[in-house]
Amino acid sequence: MELDELRQTWKSVKSHIDSHISDDDANKIKVAKNDIKSRLLKRAQWDGVFSIICLILMALSPFWSPMKFPYWWLTIFCLTLFIATLYGIRIYCTIKTINLWDYTNKDILMTIISVKKLYRNIELATASVIIPLLIWLSLTPMFINTWRMIFAWGLTILGFGLEYLWYQSNIKQINNLVNWEQE
Questions:
Q1: Distance, CA of 115 to chain centre
Q2: pLDDT at residue number 99
Q3: Are 37 and 91 in contact (CB under 8 A)?
């Protein structure tokens, strides 16, 4: 009787034992996640570099630009870029704090959720400030029915189209950091 109970217990537990990941497999997953984390950090660095370059170019545009943007418009635009850069630094620091070797999946997931919230919020805030600014600027008397208007609309569409693709790519990488086991 005890032998039958032992066999039944073994059969019920065997499937759970087989489904557990070995230490080597777990380490391979953590190394792959670490590669994803490194890519995210490099992307965040490039975001910061690009934002700082744009900020400097916009702040110095009265000296070199033939467009002659209004100063109040440049101030708002540069302030928005500066805030976006600060958020980018915060996102970078948050991603950098993820410890894949010590954190549980729950800790990693909570950190990723906070990164996604920060990223989404700054994208929405930036778009809701910059798009109306660019549209309003292109409809001012200095720009209306000129090459400047077409240039402003073209840059707006191009810039936000590329930003959307970059955002989607980054979110995909962030999701891969959490969902690695499911792939």
A1: 8
A2: 83
A3: no
Structure tokens at 38: 């490194």
Longest dimension (CA), the chain: 95
Cα separation, 130 vs 135, in Å, equals: 9
pLDDT digit string (tens) for 32-82? 777 788 888 898 899 889 889 989 988 888 888 777 778 888 899 899 999
Specify whether the CB–CB gap between 125 and 94 falls below 8 A: no
- Quote the CA–CA distance of 109 and 102 in Å, as a whole number: 13
* Amino acid code (one letter) for 104: T
Q: Could you read off the pLDDT of 57-69 as tens digits, one per residue?
A: 888 888 887 777 7
Q: Is 168 exposed, middle or buried (0-12, 13-18, 19+ CB in 10 A)?
A: exposed
Cβ neighbours of residue 155 closer than 8 Å, sequence gap 6 or more: 134
Residue by residue, DSSP assigns 81-119 as: HHHHHHHHHHHHHHHHH--TTTS-HHHHHHHHHHHHHHH
pTM value > 0.85:
no
DSSP state of 142: T
CA distance 128 to 133: 9
